[in-house]
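Predict the assembly for these two chains.
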Amino acid sequence: MVRKSTTSLIAISLISAMALAACGKSATPAPQTPPAAATGKPALGGEWVRPLDQEPDSFHPAFLRTAYGAAVSSSVLGCGLLDIDENWEPFPCLAKAMPKISADNKTYTFELRDDIYFHDGVQMTADDVVYTYKGIYLNPEYTGRQRAAWQSIVADVKATGKLSVEITLKDVYAAFLVNQPTYSVLPKHILEKTPVAEQEKAEFSRKPVGVGPYKFMDWKAGQYVLLEANDKYFKPRGEKDGPWIKTIRMKIIPDDNTRIAALEAGEIEACLNCPPQHVERLKQNFADKLTAYDWPRNGFGHIRLNNEKWPTSEKVVRQALTYALNRPAIIQGVLDGKAIVPPGPIPNPVSPWYNQDLKPMNYDKVMAEKLLDDAGYTKGADGVREKDGKKLVLNYRASKGSPIIDGIALQAQKDWKAIGVDVKIELYDFNTLLEKYVGPGDFHAAFFATGPGVDPDGLYNLLHSSEAQPDEAGVVNGNNTARFRNQRIDDLLEKGRTTTDKAERKKIYDEVQAIFADEAPWILTYSNMYTDFIAKKIKGVVNVPGFGVSFMPEWYIDTK
Amino acid sequence: MRRYMIRRIIQLIPLLLLITLMAYGAMHMAPGGPETILLADENIGNSQGQAELIALIRAKYGLDKPWYVQYGHWLNNTLHGDFGYSFYQNRPVTEIIRERLPNTIQLNLVVITLTYLIALPIGVISAVRQYSALDNTVTVLAFVGQSMPGFFVGLMLMLYVALPSHGAIPIMGMASHDVTLHGSGLLAVIIDRARYMLLPTITLLIGGLAGLTRYMRSSMLEVIREDYIRTARAKGISEKIVIYRHGFRNALLPIVTLSGSLLAAFIAGSPLIEQVFAWPGLGQASLRAALQRDYPVVMAFLIIGAFLQIIGTLLIDVVYVFVDPRIKYA
């Protein structure tokens, strides 16, 4: 289900964008001249109408699960102690400066700015930080999805002064600064009345109060959410932080085609992660009204191979399948050419952790046949290869309902048949696929989409063997459903977690990517090139690779 | 009559129970419970402890109990008027219904009224003038209308009616946020809402007219071949009175039966059309809830729908006493 997976990836990137980059990612370097200075200067005013693909679920960041909730909550609640800039590096936001780090790399001390106020006028202090991080996320009663991210990493959070906070980790965690400290801080005086176990139902989930650049105004069920500029915003990156656009109206439009029609009619002024089949047409026909922003996705669609079940348990078979799959044809055929073949599990060259030396196993049918020949897989009378009397027959399972996934399955079947591998395709509802087949390991190949996140530690739960540990029923509940177990990768991922020296860490993850590329536990099929369209009248838009144009307070409307 | 009614109402109870029981069971058999949807497929970050979290969530929402125990809880709460909390939106299901029900009724009231106002006369005329040019045209149009999927009609209307209108006819939604009752006055509000209703109404009419027209036509055709119509004509009664008094009223009987589903149709709405036009009604919400495995919302919609369907059927049976003198309940 590519659609589901892409949306959920967007959800994820947006949620991480919210967590990681709530009030913006374009801190450094500050532009030398104000954007679009030729036509006008930023000034407060105007309305921007953008779409939301679905009704939001909740605006409480500890409980929301969709990009639609996050789109609102990130602007209202604002950044965390730190934020992430467009080069994916952390910078101080609620904090005055980067934290002081103890000698054992386990204790981080943050000093807060003294000019931050919630939208109801109450000053934000260390108490709010402690309440949010410890009172909610570290609370044993907390059942939101960030539970593990906090409770397995952070030991304690305490106030060491009115504006000073100390966070202590259980173990050294190299990815800490781009994760937990980027979570928005919530108002203690509003939330403490509701126990954490009940908080998802609190009024705050529908009427959030934060310190962000926009105040929450209204939510008309099924119609729109309305935000208004916060004139007391603390502007973490200086004057350019506005906010300049007076009101943001987010119209809820669940249907893809309707969104495009509404965009063409001017009823909405953005198409975020626009469906690829519309991109070229919009670029050509609406060049006078819309600006296009292309950005590479920090994620990929991939065929997950079962590394435990014969024949995909054989490295040579996995390599041959990778070589034999004509991925450029897939990208042309089902993605309108709007994707690249990712060389390794960190697909995006903007990532500081991207391994520049890696090359994808390019389409090479001869190579694939040679690998199988050399390994003793011989073709039988029916053209299907076999070894020791066992035929190379694969169960290819994927979710149904997406032409992209269907297209990939058919291409794989055709390409693999050409090298003597018989493929049986079966499509299921996404949850059935996961629960009945992939979790229990009843598959050879299965299509999914995912991404590594901002920090390469995101690979840990995709590739570490502890994530492939089956429960007593034999079901893998972790994320390593490919059941890929590699001692060297385990060692490297563990070391990467605790190595704080950046150069050394880079080497570790370079090696992880190289081993992955060679072992081919999954076939990385494509990494999309997405396009966002924003109305021309909006200026100051910053396009962040891997995230696209997440809304930022420095945007303004050119009134000329 | 009263005894009959009481008997019928008592019969409803096991029927409703059975419907809810089957729906509850079926929903729980669908793979991927709300706990997996609640956590979605978050592959980024640290997933250790996810199994523990799933267990916590299951316990919190009572999902760890066998389905029949959950059903018992649900039934008990529902009988007390409590539909529970939506898993997805974390707020009372009744609140969601209260927000969206008026929107669905608004649209359906207009559509269903228009459907009857248009379909019945057309049906009668094409029966009376069977195989005339008019009848043939209506027949062809009916088949075309019925076989075009609603979302396609909707999209075509957007592209070829709304887009060229330059804002006079909106693409989607149900109201302009700046046209309000105390700001712009009643007339402005009515005109504004009518503009938004135009396309969804036409779409639903195109799909709905065809069926009813055909029913009316065939029912009428049957009636005008009856002996009593020939008798009426033989008595020299004018053709108008023959058709409209003697024919039409009798031909309406099967249509009355059909109308039993109307009550349910008013609230069920048309999920796909509401989705296409971003009409914030119950249909759209129920579609979303089903995909989200939002059990409390799905069950609430389902039981309301089933209840109205049954009540509708019951009402029709009662109405029969008045429209068809042959029917009497002992």
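Confidence is low (pLDDT under 50) at residues 1-38 of chain A. The longest helix of chain A spans residues 2-21.
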